[in-house]
Amino acid sequence: MQVTETLAEGLKRELKVVIPASDLASRLDSYIEDLKGKVQIKGFRPGKVPTAHLKRMYGRQAMAELVNNLIQETTQKAIDDRNEKPALQPDIDLPDDDAEAILDGKADLAFKMSYDLLPEFELIDFSSVELERPVVEIPEEEIDEQIRRIAESNRPFTTKEGAAEEGDRVSMSYVGKLDGEAFEGGSDENGQLVIGSKMFIPGFEEQLVGLKAGDEKTIAVTFPEDYPATHLAGKEVTFDIAVKEIASPGELVLDDEFAKGLGLETLEALKGVIRGQAESQYGAMTRQKMKRQLLDKLDEAYSFDLPQKLVETEFEGVWRQVLADMQRAGKTFEDEGANEEESKAEYRKIAERRVRLGLVLSEVGEKNDVQVTDDEVQRALYDRVRQYPGNEKQVFDFFRSNPQALAGLRAPIYEEKVVDYIFSIAKVTDKTVTKEELMADDEDDQAEV
Q1: Is residue 384 one of the residues assigned to a domain?
Q2: Other CB atoms closer than 10 Å to residue 87's CB: what's the count?
Q3: pLDDT recorded at residue 46
Q4: Could you tell me if 334 and 436 lie in one domain?
Q5: Using CA atoms, how far apart are residues 286 and 268, in angstroms rounded to an integer?
Q6: Where in the numbering of this chain does the PPIase FKBP-type domain appear (predicted)?
Q7: For position 444, what pLDDT does the model report?
Q8: Are 384 and 409 contacting, i.e. CB atoms less than 8 angstroms apart?
Q9: Same structural domain, 70 and 163
């Protein structure tokens, strides 16, 4: 095998690989000799089929298989011999004009392989990285309010005679119509609504006041302009209502008996559960804010050439998602006051950031022996499977037969473990913030890894 470097610009490499026809012929002879003892051909005793006959029958097919295997072997060997780390699998260019001659054993196997190298860079001292951990102190009033909301959803109601009032629960059937035609999702045979809960479209609940069991009424309401179902947004519709029952609310008593009805021993135990849930929710937001800080600092700290094919692959994924989101929303770039080419440039920057940060986190993990266990991947797989009830077997089979998809489950686990490793080294300072400050979205979530 002869390997000649034909291009070395930045991270780009291009090699020409030549394997003499004599080597191909030698390999073909060995292949045919091995085949002689395996095939059975009518008219010949086992192992006695003439080599020339086998070559006529299987030569080109065998040579095609040998060429394919040789390309894979020599590609990897060429990279190993050069002690290089490609960012992606090399692209192979085998001229079509030479294919027939190669298969006939009349030409050398010559092909070009091109690839981008992974960049080399030094890791910074992460103990010098300063991060702020936003912490929310959960007031007792918030816990009490959450318990009151739970109590409201479990409030007892008693059937009453007479007209519906604020706070009463109305049991009814209703059919929503747009331009006189029933619309999808606008009907319910056994609907229930507490007047004043603001759970329905604005203007709906108010028109239930005064109705009694057995009453029928058609009411008109207008959907909000920002209603998620675009075909209903801003539209006036009617609802044909048939009232089945009016029930008045019972008294709420927040005590140990109430907690027992929810499966807990005491009201204090219920408060502990609610506080734990709030701390877990805020803790996840805190970690997300810290991670965003870290990624921003890493983005500022590192500047190196990027493998362009890796960037292009990432950009294509991002751009496909952008176009799909716009199509689902029925929007165009003009609707958003944007220019497509300018938008592409912005999203390419996002792709470059993702690639850069991905390479940095990968290097951190490799240098510090961060590992993802099979059990962790298995748990992630089970979590994914649970998202598709009724299709569990198909999802399992897909991941087990698709190593790339399984790697897609491993990657985010690895990333989070690397981030945790850096957190453990960095200088972290707690900062008390309000719930609103913690929950405020940063401008560009898409810029994360």
Answers
A1: yes
A2: 19
A3: 66
A4: yes
A5: 26
A6: 167-262
A7: 46
A8: yes
A9: no
Strands (E), 343-433: 427-433
Same domain for 289 and 244, yes or no, is no
How do 12-19 and 181-194 pair as beta strands? Answer: unpaired
- Which uninterrupted H or E stretch holds 221? strand 216-222
pLDDT reported for residue 65: 86
Whole-model pTM: value is 0.71
How far apart are alpha carbons 232 and 140 in whole angstroms?
Answer: 41
Most confident of 88-102, 219-233, 346-360, 432-446: 346-360
Q: Which of 308, 398, 382 is nearest to 114 (CA)?
A: 308
CB atoms near residue 67 (< 10 Å) = 19
pLDDT in tens, 232-290: 989 999 999 999 999 999 888 888 988 898 889 999 999 999 999 999 999 999 999 99
Tokens of residue 202, six digits:
């604005």
| Distance (Å, whole) CA 351 – CA 130 | 26
Domain presence at residue 123: no
- 259 domain residue, yes or no: no
The total of other beta-carbon atoms located within 10 Å of residue 338's CB is 13
Residue in the block written with tokens 């994924």: 317
> 408: phi > 0 → left, psi -120 to 50 → alpha, else beta; which?
alpha
Tokens of 243: 């009232």
CA 285 to chain centre: 18
Contacts of 18 (CB under 8 A, 6+ apart): 1, 2, 4, 108, 109, 110
Beta strands at 216-222 and 157-159: parallel, antiparallel or unpaired: unpaired
Alpha-carbon gap, residue 81 to 2, rounded angstroms = 12
Distance, CA of 425 to CA of 416 (rounded, Å)? 15
Q: What is the mean pLDDT of residues 206-223?
A: 95
Cα distance between residue 65 and residue 272, in whole Å? 67
Residues in CB range of 215: below 8 A, 6 or more apart: 242, 243
Mean pLDDT of 200-220: 94
Which of the four pLDDT bands, split at 50, 70 and 90, describes residue 43? low
Domain termination site, one of 116, 147, 173: 116
Rounded to whole angstroms, what are the CA distances from 214 to 143, 207, 221?
40, 16, 22
CATH code assigned at 96: 3.30.70.1050
> Where do we find the tokens 């054993």?
105
Domain, as residue range, for 54: 2-116
* Distance in angstroms (rounded) separating the CA atoms of residues 48 and 37: 8
What is the pLDDT at residue 38?
67
Number of domains in the chain: 3
Looking at residue 449, its pLDDT comes to 59
Distances from the Cα of 286 to the Cα of 381, 404, 433, angstroms: 26, 31, 10
